Amino acid sequence: MDKNESLIQKMHHKLDKLFEELLGTIEQYSKSFDKDLLTRAYNFGLVAHLKQERYSGEPYFIHCLSVAKILAELRMDQIMIIAALLHDVIEDTGVTLDELQNEFGETVAFLVDGVTKISNIKYQSREEQQAETFRKMLLSMAKDIRVIIIKFADRLHNMRTLKYIPEKKRPRIAIETRDIYAPLAHRLGIAKIKFELEDLSLKYLEPKAYADVDKKIRISGKERQKYILSIANPIEDELLKNNIKADISGRPKSYYSIYTKMTKRNKPFEEIYDLLAIRLVVEKLEECYYTLGIIHSKFMPVYDRFKDYIAMPKINGYQSLHTTVIGPNGRMVEIQIRTAAMHEMAENGIAAHWRYKEGIKDDEADKHLNWVRELLERQMHDEDPKDFLENLKIDLFQDEVFVFTPAGDLIILPRKPTPIDFAYAVHTNVGNHCIAAKVNGRIVPLKSILRSGEQVEIITSQNQKPAQDWLSVVKTSKARHWIKKIIREEQNAQILEIGDEILVKFLKKHKLSEKKKEFLDVLPKFGYQTVDSLKIALGKGDLTPEDIRKKLYPDITEETDEKDSFIVRFLKRARTGNAIRVQGIDNMLINFANCCQPVPGDRIIGYLTRGKGVTVHRTDCKNMMKLYEDKDRVIDVEWAINKDQEFHVHLSILGDDRKDLLRDITLCVSRLNINIVAVNFSSEDMYARGHLDILIKDLSQLTKIMNNIRKISGVLSVERIDNTTN
Known about the structure:
This protein is of the alpha+beta class. It is built from 30 helices and 19 strands.
């Protein structure tokens, strides 16, 4: 026997030993597993990966066995163990999905395919590939939760062996683990995996900090254990007097949790006092509350640090009582109280709903997947991978706020939610048309922060639409998705309208129509399938009429402006974000358009009107769209305004119909020495709606007065309007 054969035999012996250990772990929780089927899957995977090695130099199949072992430790079913043994055969070997299905059945093939990354498609960026990989994984997960549980085990073993990966690749894998996999494990309640993934991510992203925390925890180990006993022993004695049996254990918080506290509070390890957690597992639900009373009789509780997650479970199904008490020497200690069933759910989350003997999930497991299905449904037609990844990260929040509808229904939202988030959680149409909210019976602005226990009622109006500035305050991905969608639709409609006007003018000039074959044949040459898509390109300025002419009549030259059409120049300038200043022209009459009422600071443009001089419009004025055709009359001008000059502005105000609201608004305006030209308010059901005409000097003064009016009690919204919207 040569040296290579001897080495191969040793490797096979090691793999066989690991497989026997796997079978032993499964046997501890299931006596009816099919050993022959598992052995067949083991041999199939072993042969498929026979010539492959890990970065560590070990046989690649060790990874597959390790993933299966992690799942067995979670007491997962036989199908999952088989899928874990074979989870890389499609991606890394010549085995096809059909072969796998023929050999081990449709379910195993589906699970393996769900775990497999998308690797056979070319993408423009790593971010796009990452988004598509997660999208595929979540689609499979929505159909069968076992896909993500296998993926967690796969990622966990990869993180445990990350030191063998080339150093330059480690940060990317660790960041992805910290930002996606660990929060996703938390969202599904699998704390055991979540904590280890976070700690391992920290180890490779902040190695010095990890080593420092590790060293200090090890040094303080004996002292910590002694301190835990000083709290646990008197509690246990008192519980025994009351015939309550409890399994009491203490531990330091995870490395990642400690590091996060240190960085957020900007304090060293020695000054972080709430590092300890003591867990009590009792037999019955009612004993949880009785135990809480005993603990509070022994140690002083910390005000406002009590949380009842039994009555109101976390969104991931977690249940427990949390209290923080002052222990010996004034140190704060968190104590968690739960039953054995709650403890299993806290450790294994959604995985706890699976049992080997059944091989099926229960209804509770399915409920936890609703948010995944909603996310995928919203993202079905979104093309931007950044939006998908951003919304996925938003949905993987860790802190929840519990608020209620007027009917008493519970709505769970992420930390620091707004009434807008609440409105969208109730229904998309409620969010799209919300104008105000009542919190505990009191009207509050839409940008207010909601707190747990509050009752929220949303006030809607069919005239209301999502505003751009909502995006800066909302916390949920659902709210962000619909706000962006509606704003994007409105913008596209405006762009399409502009593009249509440009195209109509061009076709009229060349005696063509949209339906003429000569014109339709040009569309594919630009990569457009429809006339509307070409109009949008024209509206955005990505395409010019001259571009179309060159494709239609390549042999004919035509004199054009060096700067292209006015429309294109205007749109390009508008996209740069540079403010356009308007100046007076010698011997030229200047007047300001009444339709849009520009003020210094607005982006503006001039239109030369015969007999009336230059009329100044805001660049977003709807009337300007009708004037673009005569480009020779559109001119660039700049502000040259007398400091004492004032400008007319219309404001629309909506408020609570209360006594003295109008008085408070007019007082607010007069205190800023702003002239009121006209005021008109009327009652509409519970609300007061009105218009305020004022004279102001510039945009900054207008912004100030609008902000001050918004601060008045009962004012729900203040908007600048123009005469085209009246």
